Amino acid sequence: MTLLGDVVATLDERYPPAWAESWDRVGLVLGEPEADVDTVLFVVDCVPETVEEAVAVGAQLIVAHHPLLLRGVSTLAPTTYKGRIVHRLIRAGIGLFTAHTNADVAAPGVSDALAARLGLRDTRPLRPAVGDPARGTGRIGTLPQKLTGAALVEFAARALPPTAWGVRGSGDRDRVIETVAVCGGAGDPFLGDAVAAGADAYLTSDLRHHPASEHVANGGPVLLDAAHWATERPWLDAVAAEVAAALPVRTVVSDLDTDPWTMHFPSEHFPSQEEVR
Question: Where a divalent metal cation is bound, by residue (predicted)?
Answer without folding.
Answer: 65-66, 104, 228, 232
